[in-house]
Structures are given as structure tokens and as C-alpha cells.
TrEMBL record:
SUPFAM superfamilies assigned: GroES-like, NAD(P)-binding Rossmann-fold domains
Stated name of the protein: NADPH2:quinone reductase
InterPro entries (UniProt xref): ADH-like_C, ADH-like_N, ER, GroES-like_sf, NAD(P)-bd_dom_sf, QOR-like
Pfam families the record matches: ADH_N (PF08240), ADH_zinc_N (PF00107)
Record-listed E.C. numbers: 1.6.5.5
Annotated keywords: NADP, Oxidoreductase
A GO MF term: quinone reductase (NADPH) activity
The keyword Transport is annotated on this UniProt entry: no
Residues in Enoyl reductase (ER) domain copies: 11-323
Amino acid sequence: MPKAIRIHTHGGPEVLTFEEVDPGRPGRGEILVRHTAIGVNFIDVYHRTGLYPAANGLPITPGGEAAGVVLEVGEGVGWLKPGDRIAYVVRLGAYAEQRVIAADHVVKIPDGIGDEQAAGMMLKGMTVEYLLRRTFKVKPGDTLLYHAAAGGVGLIFGQWANHLGATVIGTAGSPQKAELARAHGFHHVIDYRSQDFVQEVARITEGRKCDVVYDSVGKDTFAGSLECLKRLGTFVSFGQSSGPIPPFDIGILAQKGSLFATRPTLFSYNVTREEVEASAAALFEVVLSGAVNIRVNQRYALTDAARAHADLEARKTTGTTILLP
């Protein structure tokens, strides 16, 4: 019987267990998939710890993105057949050798993109797509600040934002990570451990500040991020790796220059089949064109998911991490 990672109680990486799980047979509108590669993301840690509790409770199989091969097609699925290569982003269930999934959630992987590459870029790349093209429509000449520039989303973000003609400023936690970010499209990288990013943004922009700040760090960067925005600027909070942003008086947005603030999620932007297809198509286009390069920097066996989580939380990883069934 196929196996999967399961979580029966919230906690540290040690709660990830590898056990037999029957994936079942695909029903109407569903497909059975054999995974070839599985993406690892910080949201998986949130599900493991209970910060983002699953709607139906425990146990759960974590993981939101993967690539694989269609094994079986359920009734009513006319556009897929066994043997097709597919990739997807959903909320849970990817840390598995096989699974049944709704066909509407998957997209075909085009020629020229490998399974490992696809598995490592769907959630991160589609996140970058909505951040740059829909949450704030970036145009040539815009100045952006992105926190955690050497992370998986950040390395895609830097390349894509550069491709759009923006001036891209990032923060990173070491000289090595700063160098990595510069190699992936960031024009300026601030080492937040040795530099004050607010002062550095003011210096880099000659006091003009930024049109938009993208912040997945949360508690540690929120106050400084607002200081980096120009009048009518936009603050985009899409994660909280340092902890949740504490409650704040919305009046501070007026005091800082009538700022805009939003807390978007991929699963609010990509709901309909049309939205999923359009987002994936835009991602595949920039990757196939060479404008965005997706590199897998860490590979772990699916059985080593706990070690992958520990390394991710310890900030030992850069860029894209995948699990191999």
C-alpha cells in the first residue's frame, strides 16, 4: 500500500510520521496521481504546529504542492489521461506517494519543465504571480521592498519583479544569502542582522521610499515596513515567519501617508478553474522564456520530511526544497 506523511498531533518535526495510507479510487471529476516530487513550504510548518489549523481537524497529510503522473481518471474528466504529467497547488495532502485529487485543481506540465522544477515552483511561483500582477500591479519604475529575499518565494520574486522593470530591494540574514538574492534579480540587498533596513531603504531610494513592501516575516518587520513606504504606498502581508503582526490602530495608516494594507492568500486569488489556469500559464511563460530560473537547492526523501522541516525552521535552506517519494 502507498505511504504518506501523517500528523496526528500538533508539535515539532517529530510529529511527522510515515505510514501506509490508502489513497482510494478517483470518483467523478477526480484523478489518482503518483507523485514524483513534492514541494516544501513554510505554510507546511504552520499546519504542523497548528498555527493554521486544518478545517476538518487531525489527522492530516501536510503539503500543498506537488508534481506527478496520472494513474487513473475518474468519470467526467475528459482532458486528462493516464500518463499525463501534472502539477498542482492545494491546501493539504501532498506529502504522499499517491493521492486522489480533484482534476480541476491540477494543470498539465508543459514540455521544457521538469517534475522537480514544477513541484518546487507551483505554490511559490503562483504566489509571486498574484503578488506582482494582481495584489499590486507592478510596472516599470516602481520601487519594491521584499523581506526574506533568499527564500523560495523571494528568489522567484526577485527575478520576476526585475523582469517587470521594477527596482527591487530585498532583505536577507547573511552575506551569503544577500549574494544569492543579488544573483536572482535583486538590485539592492540589505543584511538585516548588521544593517537597519529602514535607514538603508531611505539611503537607497534617496528618501523617496517604496511603492510597495511585501512582507512574509510579520511581527519583526511590520513597524519598519510601514516606515519604508511612500505616501499612498501599499503594505502586503502574506506570511508571518517571525510571528503574527500584533493588533494595531488602523489610524497609523493615515499617519504614515494614507497607506494601503492587505493580507492576501493564494487560495483567495486562485479559486476558479480559469484563475488557476491563468496563474499557472503566466508562471510557465516566464520560466520557459528564461526570465525566471527555478533551481532546486535541497532534496530530501519523503521519509526525511521531519529533517526538511527542522532545516527550514532553522533557516538552513535557501530557495526551493523538495521531497522525493
